[in-house]
Amino acid sequence: MRLFVPILLCCVVFAPSVAQAQYGVSGDWAGTRDLLAEHGLTIDLSATQFFQGVAGGGRDEKWDYGGKLDYLVGFEGGKAGLNEGFFIDLHAETRFGESINDDDGLLAPANIAMNFPNSSSHVTSITGLKFTQALSESFAISVGKINTLDEYALKYNGGPGLGGFMNTSLVFNPIASRTVPYSAAGVACAFLDEGKPWLTFAVFDPEERATKGLEDLFARGATFVPELILRPEIFGLPGTYVIGGTYSNADYRAIDPSAWLTVPVTGEFPLETGSWSLYTNFFQALWVDSMDESRQWGLFGQFGVSDGNPNPIEYTAICGLGGRSMLGGRPLDRFGVGYFYLRLSEEFKILSRRIRPQQDEHGLEIFYNFAFSPNCWLTVDLQIAQPSTVAFDTAIIPGARLQVLF
């Protein structure tokens, strides 16, 4: 467990002030954080530790400890006396330790956070450095190295694998995993309504750049990602509905590595030019705290279809409940229960049959996130999943996650 116990004791014993609750356990740095924020600069750090094991089935029955440090820096040009509507967003990550993703046997890993910046090494990397200029109140354009999970429009579970669900399929729709990098060089434009995007269009370099620079941009081709984002209120309850798609003109094989997936097959597969996917994702609140609209829970779903080759996943069907707890006296707790089904294409199954036979992957995850303070959470998590590899038995994956904001 290593750092789990000392950090947990620190968070339980240490009673945060209002400023510390806002900023994290390190507080406002004797007013320095407030001063920097007034001039357009914000700095946030989180540390997340994972202790998970394969209690049965999967590739290998063992326990693993690892973690992430996430560094988020924001700059607002207007507050610094520069252009109004100019923003810089930086996301750097440190990954350390071992990951359950090496042992679960799943195509879509059980711990999405530990797959980045690199799934198998101790590394620190800048995965996002985005420059944005709003040209009007209703239109903005961004360019740079874009962390696509940070930009994911459907956020119902407290963060990208750090505050809610851990399984990749319940955090990000894996139908887009063939064409969309995790860290992508590119440009995006957004049409805004009251500061929130309702229509976006992005053009990405298809090369994964989580641990790479910006050399040889668009040498392989380009990936195009349009999205329509609707935010209706149904019976007075808010919702987010996303309709989108991806198309890439790059060359792929169905077994090519993906930052999002652990492809379990190697061998000779045909090279295909171009790949596409269509998807719809949604979150609909079923309960909202009348005193705090940020406290809500509801129904979510992610559905998609693809070409089936070179994308090994033909379609996805993912649904569940998640959000903030209604338990009295525990307003910061989160919970979730979700089911995922990944239908692998018949062509991929046929091609892999003589190498390592594959089948559809499906499973369940349930978690509860206990808030010890406004900046410290302990999550208990259980996943039960049938891996895509026929030779692997159903994986039973219990685990715990400790996140601290500094």
Automatic annotation (TrEMBL):
Signal sequence annotation? 1-21
Presence of the UniProt keyword Signal in the record: yes
- Keyword flag S-adenosyl-L-methionine: no
Please name the GO terms of the biological process aspect recorded for this protein, alphabetically.
Answer: carbohydrate transport
- A GO CC term attached to the entry: membrane
Q: Which Pfam families match?
A: OprB (PF04966)
User: Which InterPro entries did the record assign?
Assistant: Carb-sel_porin_OprB, OprB_Porin, OprB_sf
- Record-level Gene Ontology MF annotations: porin activity
- Which superkingdom? Bacteria
Q: Which regions form coiled coils?
A: none
- Keywords in alphabetical order, please: Signal
Q: Which family does it belong to?
A: Belongs to the OprB family.
Q: Which PANTHER family match?
A: PORIN B
- What protein name is recorded for this chain? Carbohydrate-selective porin, OprB family
- State the organism of origin: Rubinisphaera italica
